[in-house]
Amino acid sequence: MGAVSPASHAAQIPPEAGGQRTPSRADLRKVVTASSVGTLVEWYDFYIYGSLAVVFSGYFFPEGNPFVALLVTVAAFGTGFVVRPLGALFFGRMGDKLGRKRTFLATLVLMGTATTLTGLLPTYDAVGVLAPVALVVLRLLQGLAIGGEYGGAAVYIAEYAPPRRSGFLTSFLQTTATLGLLTSILVIVLCRLALGEETFAAWGWRVPFLLSAVLVIFSLVVRLKIHESPVFERMRRTGTLSKSPIKDSLGNRHILALVVVVLFGVTAGLGVAWYTAQFYSLYFLQTNLGVEFLAANITVGIALALGTPFFVLFGALSDRYGRLRFAVAGLVLSAVSYVPLFSWIREAAPTGRFVEVTAAIFIQIVFVTMIYGPTAAYLVDLFPPQIRYTGISVVYHLGTGVFGGFTPLIALAATGGDDSLSGLLYPIIVTAVSAIVAATFLRSGSRSPVVRRAWDATQRLQDATAPTVQQTE
User: Fold this and answer.
1) What is the pLDDT of residues 286-334, one digit of tens each?
2) CB neighbours of residue 382 within 10 Å
3) Angle at 458 between CA 233 and CA 39, to 5 degrees
4) Is 208 helix (H, G, I), strand (E, B) or coil?
5) How many CB atoms within 10 Å of residue 97?
6) Of 451, 425, 424, 455, whose CA–CA distance to 438 is shortest?
7) What is the residue-averaged pLDDT of the chain?
8) How many CB atoms are located within 10 Å of the residue 434 CB?
9) Of 236, 263, 232, 259, whose CA–CA distance to 248 is shortest?
């Protein structure tokens, strides 16, 4: 059998494969809703920790330098990102072998359990060193869960979506990370206002964690009503599933080359831009500039709310004008704008000009949406279906988890808690390098040599196992 290119994968495995009819608009709405709601809840769970780090940093570590306590807490936040690639491997393999739906049901349960238990943890004063240990363990479980969530949801929606609408439909999934953070900020602000500052600082910060249990149950009910991806069903019925997704992806030099190029050309820059705009901005306001907790969170929350529709806008535009051009433009604009935008924040925040601070953060978020909006559809187009869940999960979480997740820690450590802009060197370098790599190696899309060789390698693996499949049938 001849090699199959990315451009022809829709013909290779049609939407109605596996005995299912072509999905209607109602089907697509159900698929997008179920996938996006569950992913939103998982991001809420994951980011509630980051949103509250400044509040509870003193409860789980010995008393001393508050800035050091914050750094340690942010470092614990980062441990969740370190294990995300491990979760991507574990759940990616599960998704490529056992199914997309079954896998992201498992990730949702794991995430909800870890988040709810975080709200029940005893403090350092009560149990000593067990408190930070338990906090980090639960954070690791959160990282494992989110490592398998995004890739599965992105693949699931894209494998249902008509090719000319995949950017638009998957862009709703892209909003979930921002909406998850926005929801966490909104819940925190409401709890803070309802309970008062002293009560919230004493025990009220636990409430947003405990609410996760309710959100997870609701999301499970929604997800249990959807069917398996038609592309996965087709591969299952025809015996073309990968028998060893990790080996067939990371153990194959051509697919590994694609993973490396996409990592440094798309997801690393995406991750750093996202966490600079939405988390480092929040920490910079509170820790470096001394802005009060409530004012900082409301400011970032408004910017997030205003910027979120642009994910869908750029996702839809990418269906017509191409995906990579928007991503590269967003990376370049992010790299060149960090210094002037954070200088604007540094000048406006101390004098209470929060409309200007909101505008500066909003501009950053719009640049992020240019990168993020088309990303899910773009990644699905790049990776062959047999190893798609594994490949996308690994490359996404290496980029956004490792490179992006440690952005606040690296930037905070570089500034030492003062109002300097030295912490911006890291995001500037990473986003600039990503733009260069993407423009150099991925500019031809599915015709790029690195992409074509990966698809050809997967086809050769499938051809090599075909006789075995026929014998077992």
Assistant:
1) 888 989 988 998 899 899 889 999 999 999 999 999 899 999 999 999 9
2) 26
3) 50
4) helix
5) 18
6) 451
7) 82
8) 31
9) 259
> What gap in Å lies between CA 219 and CA 41, rounded to an integer?
7
**Residues 98-127, mean pLDDT to the nearest whole number:** 86
Q: Find the length of the chain.
A: 473
Nearest residue to 174 via CA among 353, 317, 53, 27: 317
Going through 231-350 in order, the beta strands assigned E by DSSP cover none
Higher pLDDT, 7 or 192: 192
Q: 329 is written with which tokens?
A: 């433009």
Q: At what angle do helices 375-382 and 130-160 cross, to 10 degrees?
A: 70
Q: Which helix (H) or strand (E) holds 409?
A: helix 407-415
Residue with tokens 């003062």: 418
Single out the residue of 12, 4, 6 nearest to residue 445, CA to CA: 6
Q: Pick the residue with more confidence: 384 or 16?
A: 384
pTM (predicted TM-score): 0.79
Look up residue 312 and give its amino acid.
V
pLDDT tier for residue 73 given thresholds of 50, 70 and 90: low
SS3 374: coil
Radius of gyration of the chain measured on its C-alpha atoms? 22
DSSP letters for 47-100: HHHHHHHHHHTTTSS-SS-HHHHHHHHHHHHHHHHHTHHHHHHHHHHHHHHH-H
Q: How far apart are the first and last CA of the chain?
A: 19
Cα–Cα dist 33/175, whole Å: 12
Nearest to 29 by CA among 216, 220, 161: 161
Torsion (CA) 379, 385, 389, 390 in degrees, nearest 10: -100
Name the 3-class secondary structure at 269: helix
In the predicted structure, residue 10 carries a pLDDT above the cut 60: no
Q: How far apart are alpha carbons 340 and 331 in whole angstroms?
A: 16
pLDDT of res. 26: 78
Cβ neighbors of 192 (< 8 A, separation 6 or more) are 200, 204, 293, 294
Nearest CA to 143 among 427, 375, 400? 400
Q: In this structure, what token pair is assigned to residue 141?
A: 């479980």
Q: Distance of alpha carbon 94 from its chain centroid, rounded?
A: 19
